[in-house]
Design goal:
This protein has 240 residues and is α/β, with parallel strands linked by helices. Helix content is 49%, strand content 15%.
Length: 240
Amino acid sequence: MKKTPTPRTTLAPGIAKVLKRLHYPLEVILLRVRWYVVYSLSLRNLEEMMAERGIGVDHSTVHRWVIKVVPLFEKTFRKLKRPVGKSWRVDETYIKVKGSWKYLYRAVDKAGNTIDFLFRAKRDKTAARRFFEKAIAQNGSPETVTIDKSGSNLAALHAVNAEREMPIRVRQIKYLNNIVEQDHRAIKRRTRPMLGFKDFNCARVILSGIELMHMVRKGQVKCSAKTSLSAAQQFYSLVS
């Protein structure tokens, strides 16, 4: 029988300091955080699953773990993320917070690798420009960006290009964006059981965790191990 991967117990000092304050065994915290951002489970599902294993943890405690731990994983992941291609496909998808739609800006390259993401309250030129600037700062400049017929995305790219010596080529061809629209499904599949978020900042952190694990599953982490690691092992390696 295949052994379930377990978290590493040797942690970077900064990460260890945060986890120590959570007053639960490391293995319990990291496993539940990973399950929450990977699988279609609600916080109450996780509470029930833990109770069946004799671990009494309230669903609100699991939520607090996620909010505390995910930013630590993301900070490390950014340093280990594999380079992406120079042809980007950009689109935004809708996420509900307190009954109102908010916007998750996302980009993938032509191979389907996630380039970057940004959660914003509004869908306008300012939000789109902030996303492009963040994505370029983190991943380098693209040669081509493909968008749909969004006027705000086009205006944002024109503003970005106005400050560049070498402008980015912009294409508005909807069918070429099918790859990013298909990729949205993996994120929406995970958020659906959550039945909407209650707080924007919590939603932003949780979406970061979902995106991070989605990238791990795509093989976007640079690993030093000689043998290939499972997605779970790669996830845990981010805190070692």
